[in-house]
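Hey, can you fold this one?
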Amino acid sequence: MASKSGQVARINGLLTAWKAYRAALPEPARYCQLKEDLYKVRNAGWNGNPPLAAWPANLVDPDDSVMAAVEHYFLCRCWVGTGQYPAWQMRAMNGIYDAGKMLGASPRHNPTKPTTPITSTQMAFQEAGVRDGEADLRKSGKTAPLVAKPPTYW
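Sure. Predicted structure:
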């Protein structure tokens, strides 16, 4: 595993590369597509998802915790930036999910693969996704509901 500063630099580089990969899509739809792309990358070969080899090599890191941070950034940016969830609720859901990961109780999306251990880097990129999503929502002139039904995992 890389040093924390090396990991942050790697994640920032991947965020830039993924944004360029889907640059033809408008914001914030781009971030929702990237959320879907990253889910497929992190679950490559499972449940009909393409193998890792189907993705450009510069978009994939062998460290799953790095890829988790990238995926969670885009998930937060999509959900907040499109107004699906208000920022306060996204932060609360992140806190609950992260606490569950710390306790080993967070649900798996892929039953064949455990969730990645939570790291401060992942939490920081979740928050960055929420903040950038807030800016996207403001830019669009749209609003989020006061509260929304949380996602289900089963």
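DSSP finds five helices and no strands in the chain. Let me know if you want another pass with a different chain boundary.
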